[in-house]
Task: structure prediction
Amino acid sequence: MDFALSEEQTAIFDMAYGFGQEHIAPFAQKWEKDETIPKDLWPKIAELGFGGLYVSEDAGGSGLTRLDATLVFEALSMACPSVAAFLSIHNMCAKMLDSFASDDLKSRIMPDILSMNTVLSYCLTEPGSGSDAAALKTKCTRTNEGYTERHQGVHLGRRLFRRLCRDGAHLG
Result:
């Protein structure tokens, strides 16, 4: 079995690395100190196709594999791990929408997601579980009337989870 990167994968890594070294690394320490990432960075990243790394080409994304996307995250991490982490979360959420949203919803929201005019993220917390997704107790169950919710009483988490369940009913 050959574990060497293909020419295309090497080119993907090199492009992301070069971008990171030029547009991110010189400013990364200041951004970390200021606890910020400039908004104008995201559209520049999106111009490289990184706003939808593993979003299907049919939906306007790059259609890369998870391994290919990992090469982008690794290369950008060498410039600033926070930027790479943020981008990976955006892409995870974009892939979920690509996989589960209706064509109508995708046609309305994907252009802004892929251009990173809309940056995606999520919140994951609950008493006793923190950010451990496997330990979450909150559950939303589909009923004839919509959804019922069983939760641990976290106001923010519960509201967000309810929103996701309500919106999720319309994604298919």
